[in-house]
Each structure stands twice: as C-alpha cells, then as structure tokens.
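Predict the holo structure. Ligand: 4AD.
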Amino acid sequence: MSDIKRKTIVELLGTDPGETVLAKGWVRTKRGNKNISFIALNDGSTVNNIQVVCEGKDFSEDFLKPVTTGACIAVKGELVESPGSGQNVEIHAGEIKIYGTADPATYPLQKKGHSMEFLREIAHLRPRTNTFGCVFRIRHAMAYAIHKYFNDRGFFYLHTPLITGSDAEGAGDMFQVTTLDLNNVPKTDDGRIDYSSDFFGKHTSLTVSGQLEAELGAMSLGKVYTFGPTFRAENSNTPRHLAEFWMIEPEVAFNDINDNMDFAEDFIKYLVRYALDNCADDLAFLNKMIDKGLLERLQSVVSTDFVRLSYGDGIDILIKSGAKFEFPVHWGVDLQSEHERYLVEKHFGKPVILTDYPKDIKAFYMKQNLDGKTVRAMDVLFPKIGEIIGGSEREEDLKKLENRMEELGMDKSGMQWYLDLRRYGTAPHSGFGLGFERLLLFVTGMANIRDVIPFPRTPKSAEF
Ligand code: 4AD
Ligand code: MG
C-alpha cells in the first residue's frame, strides 16, 4: 500500500480517472450486499465523501463486517469514472487496511441526525460530522483571511499579553490569575489579600482585550492588529456569549471615527466575500441543512452600504416604532440585542453602524464629544447577531483622559504606561474589536456560539 502517496479526498475528487490511488479516512456509511458494497469515506479535507466500491469477489463479507460507520481505513484502488450521480469519480477498491474499528453498539455518531446539545457533549467527536467539519474549515479560512487582509495592507501583527494587571474595558468581569494557596491566603495587616507574595507580586487577571497594548503598537508601528483569545467572567448564558473567545483588534494611528467606520465596513465585507469565494461547498451544505437564508444574507451584506446612525437617532427610531421590547428604551440605556436586531432586521434591513453613545455606558478610553454627554464610539450591528464589532476613536488628550479616569474612580497608578502615550507625542487614533465567534455565527448560520468554537467555555462548563 505504501508504494503510492496518499491523496486527500478533496484532491481525489479533482483528479482525472485512470490512476491507482491511496485514500485514508473515516467511514461515514456502508451499504450494499454480499456481491457489492459501497463505502462513503471522508477524511475532513472537504464536506464531500468519496465513494469506495468493493466487489464481493475481492472482499469477503467477513472482512468487510467491521468496516462500519466511524471506522478508519486505508483504501488502495483504481480511480474510475463514477456511473452514479453526485460524484465524478469513485475508487474501485483493490486493497483495504483497517486502522481502527468503531463498535456500532457504542459509537455515538450513527447515521441519524443528532441535536446540537447532544453533539456539544461529544465535542471530541463532533468535528467528524458534516456540519462541524464545515464550521471548523470555515473557521480556519476566516483566520487565514484575517491575517491576509492585514498583511496585504501593511499592518503588523502584535502579540499582546494574556496575563495582565490592567482592566482594559473597566468592566471588572475578569478571571484572576494566582498561584496563592487558596486554602491559606496571605493577608496584610489590614486584613486584605497580600498579593505581594503572589507569582507576579501583584493582582493579575486574564485579559478582556488587547486594545490598550495595541494602542502602544499603533503609536509606534502605525498600523497593528491583535488576534488572540480573550476572557470574560460575565455570567451571560446566551447564544452569543463565551467566557473564552477570540478577538481581532486593529488599531491605527491618525484614523478618526469616520476612517474607523470605513475600515470596519471594508474589513468585514472582505471576510464575508472571502468565505463566499473560498468556502463554497461548506457554505452550500450549511445553507441547505442549517439555515436556508444563509447565502442570501451573506450576499446581501457584501453588496450593500451599511447604515450610519447616531445612538440618539437609533433610540428615537426604537421609541417611535411602538414595538414591545423586553427591556424598555430611553436615551441612556445600553442597547440589548433585541433593540439592535430591530434596527438591523426590521427597520433598515441591513447592517447598521451606531455612533456617539452616552459616555456612561462606554469604556473610559473613548474620545469625548464636545456635548459632554457622548463619546466617539461605534458598534457595528449585524442581522441575526446584533453587535459584531465594538470600537471607537480614542481620547488622545491627557487631561481629559485623566479626568475621566478620576470620575470613574479608576486607579491611575498602574496605568502610567498607557497615559505616557498621551504625554509623549500623542495623536488621534482609532480601532475596534471584532468578535471572531460572532463573525463565525454570521458566516456559518449556526445559531449558538458554542457551536462555532471547538471547545466552548461558558458558565459552569469547561469540558475537554
Ligand atoms: O465591545 P467589546 O467589549 O470591545 C472591546 O473589547 C474593545 N477593547 C475593542 C476595541 O476597540 N479594540 O468587544 C468587542 C467585540 C464585540 O463586539 C463582540 O463581537 C465580541 O467582541 N464579544 C464577545 N464575543 C463572544 N463572547 C463574549 N462574551 C463577547 N464579548 C464581546
Ligand atoms: Mg461592545
């Protein structure tokens, strides 16, 4: 068998018939009788299977018996034109090696459809289903497209720390990082935890965002981005929140809020177009099996101008709509996803960028408007998702930033490095954060964020 080189199934399906080939993969189904058997084989390289035809004269029933759904095999044979519909070529098997069997009595992925909840419990096996194969191939393609977009435009990928002493969003939903003995925590004389004996000699946490460090990058390298895991200990059990999620955060010197909006719109359209151009088979499968409106929605986003609207005007529209919301609307409220989706899905029928939010519902670092009430924030709102991007122009004025931090009762002592940016050679700059899994929800049509990351972390759940 090893005399020829294995081809992946995506390669085989694009190969002309007439070659002796070697394929390896997992059995999806086997059907037939003692004269002829048909095995659908998949190796993860594509959503499509290759059909393996085994004739009774070459393979006994006994030999093929353990070749059941989930078993792993290698097949050597002739690649021939397929008389059946659905594929151009199939393998006429000459030799089969069984690597591993999968007992039908216990292997959980039998032919019948399974609920997403059940598949979440077997997250170690769910990538072998068509749906999750599609999702994780698209996840890879989007990660690649993100790096390509930035590299092609002169951005530098900056690795920002995951363990940090600062709360980038000032929201306090952070996971502590400590090596202190929790059964015997050292205390100071006034009874507080003595972090000076902790690993880093101070209180540290997992980061909620790489933005503050990315700002340092923008103010030296000009255009940077981060792309890494971020952590939020918010107790949000929703289909759109994870405790560990990946975020893409570009930061650009000299961009104002309008440049930032143009950039965010261009970026996200590029990514959706990339998926349409490069993930056609996977998207076609998801469009058929998961969400019949998926392809249409993706097409519509790339071919429309996003609406740009102030928060205040958005609030007016919601109030005038007369629609019943679970959370009542008035100027000053933090928008819930029901409000965001009303604007996007019911009122405008396309993505919306909301700007100029009340400063009290946004982070301390956002540039303050002259009205004293609002900041140059921008949230990009998407159909089915709500907020997919959050960003802003940053406050570049040292005094204004210090005043805002004092107003909010923040401890400036650990933030001198951040304030130094405004002290030495300050400049306008802007950036945003795109939630990678929210992007994937949109691109795949999946309904729950737990199903677009291989191993989801949510309140009370950290399996695998
Ligand atoms: O709006 P957020 O909190 O903004 C920031 O963290 C800024 N530092 C970004 C920046 O300006 N550089 O988060 C940004 C995005 C949200 O729009 C959302 O897509 C995603 O991150 N996000 C989450 N995704 C999954 N689970 C969660 N718990 C999320 N929280 C935010
Ligand atoms: Mg936000």
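The chain has a mean pLDDT of 96. The CA atoms of residues 388 and 439 lie 7 Å apart.
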